[in-house]
Amino acid sequence: MINTAAKHIRRAPYQALTAVLIMTLTFFVATLLIVLAYSTSTLLKHYETSPQVIAYLKSNATTEQITTLQRSLESDTRVKKVSFVTREQAMEIYKQATAGNPLLSQYISPNVFPASLEFSIKNLNFAQGLIDEVTKELAIDEVAFTASLGSSQNLPKVVERLTRISNYIRIGGAASLSFLLLSSLLVLLVIIGMRISSRRDEIEILQLIGATPGFIRWPFILEGLFYSTAGALLGWILGFLAVLYASPALSSFFADIPFLPTDVPALLALLGIILGGELLLAIFLGAIGSLVAMKRYLKI
Amino acid sequence: MIKFENVSKKYGSNFAIEDVSFEIPEGEFVFLTGHSGAGKTTLIRLLLRDINPSCGQVLIEGRDIKTLKSREIPAYRRKLGVIFQDFKLLLDRTVYENVKLATEIDGRTTSEEEEKIKKALEGVDMLEKSNLFPRQLSGGEVQRAVIARVLVQEPKIILADEPTGNLDPVTARQIVGLLEDAVKEDKTTVLMATHNADIVDHLKHRVIHLESGKVASDDSKGKYITRFKT
């Protein structure tokens, strides 16, 4: 049966090429969309879990005021990971941030930097209310939201924008992918249908000499599976290459935000999971395409 | 082995065959003759279970084949060997692959089967040309390849619908000779629909003659050949 399917493919190479190319395009786009969805999810998680709020302390804030505020934040269910950053630690952070240009930090003393309480918020929607509350504290000089997309002044916009981007990618991606999958399914259906039509005589002969329906059908099913899995593999390889190609530029754009796994094994694991999922989807698509074509064109 | 009991087949209001009854025992060679449209092909298609009779029964080894379930039909057809005027070989397979197909569909792929294939090809004098494709062969050679495929199936019944229709007289006699060998050696039952009066006349087998879908004569010694010729 495998030999027969291979023979079918060799006999009409242009139809086979068309099917594989369409599948390749679909799975290439699918790979990119999945990576993009993963990245936006990572990005969103990063903003949700990194210390988003920095409450700068007044220079005359007492230790008691600071301790009370820190305890109050630690007991707040909306807050996680509260930490006190001293002037010296703040300077260290600045030095690390400007490591590429040591002159910027050469003549600066820790006194320039205010001490602060840094904390992250469990849900970005709590941010505005919490910031308003902390701002009113006597020990607090100024409160900043560290999301690189804005400051505390436009916090609602930051949250809204991130959520909107994430939704666009998910909904838009799902819609585009559904459209491409449907197109691929139709192409597969038409090509397998053409194959069946062009082999009517052969099917008739096989029936006459007593071939079972399975014996007649399997080569067509295998053909559909070949197109879809070959397309998935090629699409994934192209997607993988595109991600590798774009990674340096994206890394420099997002700076230290790990939008993709930073170590090679984790990146390979992510792409491996994508490949596995795509192959399963391809098998499903190939089987469905072949079966529908046979139901439509192969009456045995 | 084969029994037709008052079998009729209607297409619309026209009878393709009407009230046909006959019986063919195991190991008999029978010619089915008649003009075009007399009902020969309908009769073969009924035996193949390609169509069902409008009324009456077609019995093979005592079983009414109309009662066969869809899933039983392939196994039933593997008991039959079918030969057609237009050969029906797969054009993209060699002679050997075409003959091998008969064992593949049955799931038989042992070395013993390979030997059978070679023996069958040798029997029809096609072993040397077994690697050629049907398009590279003459009509007689293609029909011999079909017979090799049929012989590998080891059928109980061979149904031949005008197998010599596209062949010259000498080749036609060789082909029928191969079918006669199958009857003698394996006790295979052969029902051969033909227009070829010379062959029918020469071989003196039983002749069932159809006219307008009815059995006009059924003669065990080909006595009505003269009538058939007219």
Please provide the count of β strands of chain A. Answer: 4
Q: CATH homologous superfamily of the domain at 2-88 and 156-219 in chain B, by name?
A: P-loop containing nucleotide triphosphate hydrolases
Shape of chain A: elongated
Question: What best-fitting shape of chain B do the alpha-carbon axes yield?
Answer: globular
Number of helices of chain A: 10
Order of helices and strands of chain A: HHEHEHHEHEHHHH
User: Stretches of chain A where pLDDT falls below 50 for ≥5 residues?
Assistant: 148-153
Return the CATH class of the domain at 2-88 and 156-219 in chain B: Alpha Beta
**Spatial strand order of the main sheet of chain B:** 6-7-8-3-9-10
Nearest-angstrom radius of gyration of chain A? 29 Å
**Helicity range of chain B:** 25-40%
**Percent of sequence in beta strands of chain B:** 25-35%
Q: Give the beta-strand count of chain B.
A: 10
Number of domains of chain A: 2
Subcellular location (chain A): Cell membrane
Pfam family, one (chain A): FtsX
Domain FtsX extracellular (chain A): 52-143
Membrane topology (chain A): Multi-pass membrane protein
Helices and strands in order:
The complex is a heterodimer of chains A (300) and B (230).
Chain A lengths: L1 H10 L1 H37 L3 E5 L5 H12 L4 E7 L1 H11 L5 H4 L9 E6 L5 H9 L4 E6 L9 H44 L1 H9 L4 H42 L9 H34 L3
Antiparallel strand pairs in A: 1-3, 1-4, 2-3
Chain B lengths: L1 E10 L2 E11 L4 E5 L6 H8 L7 E6 L2 E2 L8 H5 L2 E5 L10 H10 L6 H13 L15 H14 L4 E5 L7 H18 L2 E6 L2 H7 L2 E6 L2 E6 L5 H5 L1
Parallel strand pairs in B: 3-8, 3-9, 6-7, 7-8
Antiparallel strand pairs in B: 1-2, 1-4, 4-5, 9-10
Helix pairs in contact in B: 3-4, 3-5, 4-5, 5-6
Keywords (chain B): ATP-binding, Nucleotide-binding
Protein name (chain B): ABC transporter domain-containing protein
Family (chain B): Belongs to the ABC transporter superfamily.
Task: Explain the overall architecture.
The complex is a heterodimer of chains A (300) and B (230). With 300 residues, chain A is an alpha+beta fold. Chain A folds into two domains: 2-46 and 158-297, no CATH class; 51-145, Alpha-Beta Plaits, CATH 3.30.70.3040. Chain A has helices at residues 2-11, 13-49, 63-74, 87-97, 103-106, 127-135, 155-198, 200-208, 213-254, 264-297; strands at residues 53-57, 79-85, 116-121, 140-145. Chain A has a four-stranded antiparallel beta sheet with strand order 2-3-1-4. The radius of gyration of chain A is 29 Å and the shape is elongated. In chain A, 30% of the residues are buried. Chain B is an alpha/beta fold. Chain B has a domain at 2-88 and 156-219: Rossmann fold. Chain B has eight helices and ten strands. Chain B is globular. Residues 224-230 of chain B have low confidence and may be disordered. The interface between A and B is medium-sized, with 15 and 21 residues.
